[in-house]
Amino acid sequence: MTQDFRDPDALRVRAGIGGDPAQDQHFLVDDRVLNRLPEYLSDDNGETTHILEIGGGTGALTDRLCAVADQVTVVERDRRLADFLRKEFATERENGTLTVIEGDALDVTLPEFTASVSNLPYGASSEIAFRLLPLGQPLVLMFQQEFAERMAADTGEDEYSRLAVAAGHYAEVELVETVPPAAFDPQPAVQSAVIKAVPREPSYSVPNDEFFLLFLKAIFTQRRKTMRNAVRNTVHISELDDGDAVVSAADESLMSRRAGSVSPAEFAQLTRLAWDVGEPAAKNRTE
Ligand SMILES: C[S@@+](CC[C@H](N)C(=O)[O-])C[C@H]1O[C@@H](n2cnc3c(N)ncnc32)[C@H](O)[C@@H]1O
């Protein structure tokens, strides 16, 4: 990008807000990172029509998003920052490019967006990501690096986790760059990383998304145990009434493995079996 953008340091001075790490306020101050983030979107297939940004901060990323999008909606929980964004971007608001929503990204009504580009508040990044993923739009999200790696991992890798299977249920997730603490002010204690999530239908089917995610959560709490023990020991989480029936009906060799080697399609197959023979409470909730 050759365009002149608002200087991130000048924005922070004008806002008069230093950033409170306890409120997940780590503002991006590295222009190269800021300029690259919108470039992970493609403008060919409408991704830039309406961009949602969660956690606007002092607006350095908002500014870059306004330059590529027809419309931007930014959600900011901190009243002082939301007030500053309204003033700083008065022109963009008047010409209909920008809408500022003051509130918690976990509670507010979200607009119909075509993509989200966000440097997420790390304290709520999992909840926010799993609010956005089911909405089926491309996402470019900054997380703590460890979290991003777990989300993007493939079966059998050390970082492979419930997060990878759950996120992969909605999208193809790729870690596109790592970002050092020096790119932020105040600096976070850990490395960060950006993922791009491209929505897609999974190659398998499950009878019920809620139960699939609950079952994964249960099994991965016992990732060092065999699947047999993991299914049996976690019925209080998966809410299976008959975990033994699932173990008896499942493939013997699958039950001898550990969660880290079980592919999403195998988890889906086991979920279908558990739905049929394990009497999950989630089934009653759908009846
Ligand atoms: C990591 S900062 C990113 C700020 C800015 N986008 C940037 O890149 O410099 C996260 C922002 O999210 C805001 N925030 C924290 N929790 C939030 C929540 N639950 N909903 C909406 N915004 C939140 C913080 O006030 C902060 O401004």
Can you walk through the features of this model?
There is one protein chain. Helix 3 (60-68) links the parallel strand 2 (50-54) and strand 3. A seven-stranded mixed beta sheet has the order 4-3-2-5-6-9-7, sandwiched between helices. The model has no long low-confidence stretch (mean pLDDT 96). It is elongated and about 65 Å long. It has 15 helices and nine strands. The protein folds into two domains: 8-199, Vaccinia Virus protein VP39 (Rossmann fold), CATH 3.40.50.150; 209-286, no CATH class. The relative contact order is 0.11. The longest helix is centred in the C-terminal third of the chain and has 14 residues, at 264-277. It is of the alpha/beta class and 287 residues long. The termini are far apart. The chain has helices at 8-15, 31-36, 60-68, 79-88, 90-94, 125-132, 145-152, 162-168, 209-220, 227-233, 235-238, 243-249, 252-255, 264-277, 281-286; strands spanning 27-28, 50-54, 71-76, 98-102, 115-119, 139-144, 171-179, 184-185, 192-199. The structure holds S-adenosylmethionine. S-adenosylmethionine binds next to strand 1, helix 3 and strand 3. S-adenosylmethionine is lined by residues 23-28, 54-57, 60-61, 75-78, 81, 104-106, 119, 121, 124.
Main sheet record: 7 strands, mixed
End-to-end distance: 53 Å
The amount of helix comes to: 40-55%
**Average pLDDT reading:** 96
Classified in CATH, the superfamily of the largest domain is Vaccinia Virus protein VP39
Question: What structural class do you assign from the helix and strand content?
Answer: alpha/beta
Number of strands: 9
CATH topology of the largest domain: Rossmann fold
CATH class wording of the largest domain: Alpha Beta
Bound molecules: S-adenosylmethionine
Strand order of the largest sheet: 4-3-2-5-6-9-7
Oligomer: single chain
